[in-house]
Amino acid sequence: MRIDFVSDVSCPWCAIGLKSLEKALERVAGEIEADIHFQPFELNPGMGPEGQDIFEHIAEKYGSTPAQQEQSREMIRQRGAEVGFTFDMSKRGRIYNTFDAHRLLHWAEGQGDGRQRALKEKLLEAYFTKGEDPSSQDLLVRVAGEAGLDQAQARTVLESDAYADEVRQREYYWQRAGIRSVPAIVINERHLISGGQPPEVFEQALRQLSQQEETV
Question: Which CATH superfamily does the domain covering 2-215 fall into?
């Protein structure tokens, strides 16, 4: 079963959705074999290199009041805890450009042995748990090493324009496919599950779609 996980590393619901999907895959282990591909989606493609204060950004983008933002942050923190992901809201003060992170993820996909998935998880942890800057090349190189990737190769990728065109083409492809919000989980290139759903929702969908594929 092919799973395209369309997401951004600065999207909290993407972290929740990935953890939920992983729990669902654990529950169907031995029944369903899944191959996850992480696809790029930038929530803020025009974000400058200095980033922006997270409260200011959300207020401008969604019109949220401080009280509404605090309520949303607490809900996200709780949902993350339920699936085993730690959001440290006190450390996430800014939102950043994530294009280089997507270039690195694209490169990691070709490195085999689940390296792309490991890198994705490390990037989400770096931003949401540790409050680090995912636009920093030094941070990206370090996290690549933590994910078992070659740091020298990672830096070479980041210091060039490698995979920039490929990432933009993939972003355009998913936009043309109708993806407007993330996470968007596309199974076998036909079936869409939107949002950071609970593990039970993913598990049920995986089983149903697997059965459908078997009867086709």
Answer: Glutaredoxin (3.40.30.10)
